[in-house]
Amino acid sequence: MLRTNTCGELRIENIGKTVVLSGWVQKVRDKGGMLWIDLRDRYGITQLILEEGKSDAAVLSVARSLSREDVISAEGPVIERSAKNANITTGDIEIQVLKLTLLNKSKTPPFTIEDDTDGGDELRMKYRYLDIRRTPVRTALELRHRLSIETRKYLDSFNFLEVETPYLIKSTPEGARDFVVPSRMNPGEFYALPQSPQTFKQLLMVAGIDRYYQIVKCFRDEDLRADRQPEFTQIDCEMSFVTQEDVLQTFEGLITHLFSKVLNVQLPAFPRMTYADAMRYYGCDKPDIRFDMQFVEMNSIVKEKGFPVFDSAELVVGINAAGCSEYTRKQLDALTDFVKKPQIGATGLVYLKCNSDGTYKSSVDKFYAPEELAKWAAAFNAKAGDLILVLAGGADKTRKALSELRLHVAEELGLRDPKVFKPLWVLDFPLLEWNEDEKRFFAMHHPFTSPLPDDVHYMSTDPGKVRANAYDMVINGVELGGGSVRIHDRTLQKQMFSILGFTDEEAQNQFGFLMNAFEYGAPPHAGLAFGFDRMCAIFSGKDSIRDFIAFPKNNSGRDVMIDSPSVIDSKQLVDLGLTINK
Amino acid sequence: MLRTNTCGELRIENIGKTVVLSGWVQKVRDKGGMLWIDLRDRYGITQLILEEGKSDAAVLSVARSLSREDVISAEGPVIERSAKNANITTGDIEIQVLKLTLLNKSKTPPFTIEDDTDGGDELRMKYRYLDIRRTPVRTALELRHRLSIETRKYLDSFNFLEVETPYLIKSTPEGARDFVVPSRMNPGEFYALPQSPQTFKQLLMVAGIDRYYQIVKCFRDEDLRADRQPEFTQIDCEMSFVTQEDVLQTFEGLITHLFSKVLNVQLPAFPRMTYADAMRYYGCDKPDIRFDMQFVEMNSIVKEKGFPVFDSAELVVGINAAGCSEYTRKQLDALTDFVKKPQIGATGLVYLKCNSDGTYKSSVDKFYAPEELAKWAAAFNAKAGDLILVLAGGADKTRKALSELRLHVAEELGLRDPKVFKPLWVLDFPLLEWNEDEKRFFAMHHPFTSPLPDDVHYMSTDPGKVRANAYDMVINGVELGGGSVRIHDRTLQKQMFSILGFTDEEAQNQFGFLMNAFEYGAPPHAGLAFGFDRMCAIFSGKDSIRDFIAFPKNNSGRDVMIDSPSVIDSKQLVDLGLTINK
Description:
The structure is a homodimer.
Chain A: E1 18-30, E2 34-41, E3 44-51, H1 57-64, E4 71-80, E5 93-96, E6 99-104, H2 121-126, H3 128-131, H4 135-157, E7 161-162, E8 180-182, E9 190-192, H5 198-206, E10 211-219, E11 231-240, H6 244-263, E12 272-274, H7 275-282, E13 296-297, H8 299-302, H9 308-311, E14 315-321, H10 329-340, E15 350-354, E16 360-362, H11 370-379, E17 387-393, H12 395-412, E18 423-427, E19 432-435, E20 440-443, H13 458-461, E21 470-475, E22 478-485, H14 490-499, H15 504-517, E23 525-531, H16 532-539, H17 570-576, E24 578-580
Helix pairs in contact in A: 4-6, 4-16, 14-15
């Protein structure tokens, strides 16, 4: 071992011990007769000291030649520091260097290896191996490791088996676009990389592996939006002989365990909300419930008072920004500008100030008398000092816009504390979504999701009305995972495919192996999957997943560090029987 | 939960408790007034009993309709069996069924779900989800899970971080053939699937993650031999600031931990052997040392005695099959036939029987007087009753053939007990192999392996002579894993690429990102990787890895269950900008 200890390990009680440390030069301070080096490794920073007289001239000369990020090894006794540093765990001691070896020289790095680096995103990605040396990125990867270790511990203790499912599978046109892999041994044919191990985990249930999990890479060839990655990691789980309630309990238990073990945060029992309520009260299927600010629908109190915008709107709906009645004209204008941004899409914003003197001030005073405005305030349970913000228009679009406004206002009011965690189950999603372009239903979750027992009869009469036996786990307005009770009956599965517009032949061709398996004793089963990259970000209170992935790709799907994808040998193309179109 | 207990759980102390069990019907025995069902799940088998009079007629009628592999749920009290079954853990009790639910009907499975099934390989693969219901396959997957859990536990306790490296990487022509993935967003360009995370783990060392591991899928597009899979799993590890000795200690520790925790087998310290000795004494680089039977080279005692075959041979070398002097003519002929098989390639076999009466009998008596044969026996330390088997010819080929004969004879003598485990480190492999076809050196391990410090000076003068700082772990004649101390110096790495025939431009183009990284303070580092599929097989004393993979592919790289690879949509090809050659 080229070290006896790490740079994060030595304490006052180690004084007198001769140690060898190895690591990177964080900083050199040369004061003439004395010279200090901050030596860094994964575990921390330890100060090295060299003094003329006490260290060899040769050793001092090596030390004087050092620059940032050189890799060195230093040997000497641990001594007590005269000026202690309470900011680092090793701040009580330093190493009096008697031997010093330069293990590898470094060029000057293109950005500083500091918590707040001067490197931009693109540069950091190109030199990701330097970026990972920075504490924020390293601790992100350490958190990821810890979460995966604790996930496995918990699931193992409940008899879940981790089973590896294949990466070279079969392409299916349903859902997102697959990455495909040409087969050289079977010319003209392709494997696909899995978008999830969905069908395989269901086959494992048929196979009697009644509790399965896997922390597994998945792949989707989508046009990348910010913070989407073509490859991402799921914690994928499935159970047999269970009801929805069992799945909710089990995975609420997992997340509670993770928060407790990894963050020392004790979560309360998770509240549950139907999809219908989530849409009605929060305008989205993953509400952030760290704060209240529920939607109040106002159609019954605002219509037919002569205000044409409200009269013609399908929905008039608002939120109460408590304590904001003193918002200035400028602040209100900024909110209006916010809702009018194309990605929000509202046409305007109506406000009602509930002034501290009990009077009301609204942008639509002209149409609503004070006693009408008092009715608004009552509907919101608004108190003096509150500010009511109202949008109007088509119901879906208006809810979506108000949901964005709600988050925006909460952000401004500091109600979205990243250290506060509010989990939630959202239940009873619709089974199907109507696609107006293709004039057919699509599965909202996926085609293996079972309908709620109460709604099965709608499958043949009114499929759009069927609620799914599906659930999402949401924390702080972010979907952490989701799943469903699966269809385990071949006839129901066939009916589902037929509603989705598959001919029997297409269904058989694409999912025949699963439907055939269902004929040989498929148990009732259910499961869910967590987005692991996202989970890491949530645990850290971060929005971006990128720093929780060791080597992420950019928004064009490129790895700028290794410069991939790239052209391949023409011989390789010949072997694969492929030609690139000009 | 559709059960209160599993089918492997109930014992005599549970008598009186009312339980619900769910699982698959293993067997129904109907004796008229009484009917027994063996109910199976992942955890075991529990007997259900139904009696006329005690169970409802409706319940009995459901029971009578059941057939193998139907999925049912049964409720009733645990009672004591009159005829106990000591062969199963639940054999003291049975369930008196009061309620019985058919959860899903099964067609008759195409083979029996028994330890010894009547299903052939192809059928078992096609219906893998039924095959996994069989105990031998299920326990293989359980062993795999246990090994991965314990591997992570051990490595985590030594501060190794599991870091996920990307699957969509860059194709490199060196080594085996890559699977490639066309990029739709970057037309004409391809990702490659990793053959191993080698370069990424080295980058993680540059990044300061000084102990890394990952249990990770790797991909190689090779023509498949028996028991090779296009996708396979590695336990991939790397460490910084270590010497070879540290790596050997750490991973000897891992394997010792796994044998102790998973099999309750205590391994001794691993002996170490140089590659040169392995070849000299065993004729192969992964000797099975469960038994001795070392090679003895006989050139000095057999040449120039008038036997032209030995006189013209580069090497005459033999083994002592102790206690086999009574082998019959038929047995000796069979051994001769064995070595003459094309895949072994010897031209003949010479034997010497050391008879129990002290005389010698050899197939080459004509050329060697008894006192000459006595010299042979002495060279082997042979005792009366032993049988010496000798091959002659070109040195490499003869060693290889004798190695096969050694294993074959040991197998016949029962010396290869799958319950006995003899680990071994093989060290000091050659760095390079000369390829006669391409007239250039290839890296024996990979191009990042460092030379032994003592041999560095040969790099420029006689590269073929350089030994690598590389090591393989071998158990029972199978390579479990291997690795090396890596090159961390850019100049040495450049020299290595140049010996391998890369121009600077090619090296920069393919591995520039790694060589550039080496300029920014690469620490000394070393690592290794274990073949995880193979490890599972070794722990079970099995030769084939296939049952340790949930969903393996056949020898043409096909998954016969899902029928993949397959043709894809022409639209998908257009999106990728590819045409399939006619």
